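User: Please predict the structure of the protein below. I'd like the answer in structure-token form so I can feed it into my own downstream comparison script.

Assistant: Understood. Taking the following sequence of 491 residues as input:
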Amino acid sequence: MAVSLILSGALTWVLVRDVALQGAQDELDRAIVVDAVLVKHQECAEPPAALTGAGAAACPLVSQPEFMDRLASLAPTLDADRLLLLNRQRMVMFDSSGTAQGQVLTVTAAQRFANVAEATPVLDGQRYLAAAVAISPARDPLRAAFVVVAREQSSVTAAAAGELVPRLLVAGGVALMVALILVLLVNRSLTRPLSQLAAAAEDVAGGNYSRRVGIRGPDEIGQLGAAFDRMAEAVERARRVQRDFLANVSHELKTPLTSLIGFSQALTDGSLKSEAERTRAAAIVHEESERVLRMAQELLDLARVEGGTMSMHVTAVDLSAQLQQELDIVRPRAALRDLTLSAELPPDLPPVSADPERLHQVLDNLLDNAVKYAASGTAVRVSARSTGIAVESVVSNAVGEHSPDPERMFDRFYRADASRSAAAGGVGLGLAISRELVSAMKGRLWSDFDDEGRLRVHVVLPGAAPGGALSTPTVVSRPAPPERQGSRSGA
């Protein structure tokens, strides 16, 4: 009887220990997904709460020492004894306990969880349970390729023994059954939302961008469900913007191409009898060809700056001199519309850090828009001021009959007066390109209305480092474009 009790107790203890170890391993496998996200949040110099959507993928990285300090502070909050980061060769780059750097760990793919690896390393002479998940080395200050959380096996078995051994002889069987039932219930409550998330991910991958999971809650699964829905919304919005962009490009190209085909056909088939008609048709073909070329160049510029492939030669630029020259460029066009140009530029305005050519492109576009879209007989004002670490310049003008929307002015193909043709109001890419150029120069571009109802476009650029050589403006005034019937009404 005693031998039977000892044997059954030993067998029960072995089963309980195995269940405890497997449960701890499963817990680590589940927690590693969220823990990896928390580790990646520490990579960003800005607070993680401010990084959502595309902003998170492009955040500036912290230095290695600060990153390691953050990881050391994060480790005690995780559901594990140790936090480790491995490189591609599985060598430990960071250990929250500080004793395993340089050790190589062997990890194998988990059979019960996708995209998760498991390991049973020996650290400091103790056997550990570990779970790992891959991260992008290019986005990690330590160039780590895996995030690993580990828990000491002896702590798991000691905890199980401390709770179960005193009651093992009297309630071993009952405790085992209850434990098994609880494990099944907990596992089911976790695997159901994960299965739902996996199915939704397959739907989104298949093109169903409207799929949402609706999983909410304060726990990690609820946070993962909310993050998935936000991701799906962002993907759906990006696809919608892409479709609208292609539709707008097709629409804007249709009118000039129709004119080119019609007048070139008239020139070739001899239907234009007089020399004046042929001259007018040739002029229209030339003008429409230039419009198509300008649109293609603007689209190419927009694609380059958004893709980060446009070269930037940032140097110290005399913003005051640049603004004065831009005003001289647009002054003849302003006189044709009876507009008054005024500038309020302090004599001690510091230089800005910018690409001179791209800054000219931005300022030329802003002043050109202000001159074209301002109400006739009003004033266009240019001002600038230093904010200490940056310089803000403002271009303001009174709006005409069709007031633009400051929130949408920088959208592609936006026009305040949608009834105007592209020949009268441009294709609406100038401000979109300007915003991307200013952002590439580490600045900001936005618009609003002042108390008088005047439209203000703000450009903020970082100040140049003291002691740098100033770049003086050398751009040449461009001729005024040929006027056609109607006036433009959109950037």
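That's the full token string. Residues 42 and 66 are 9 Å apart (CA to CA).
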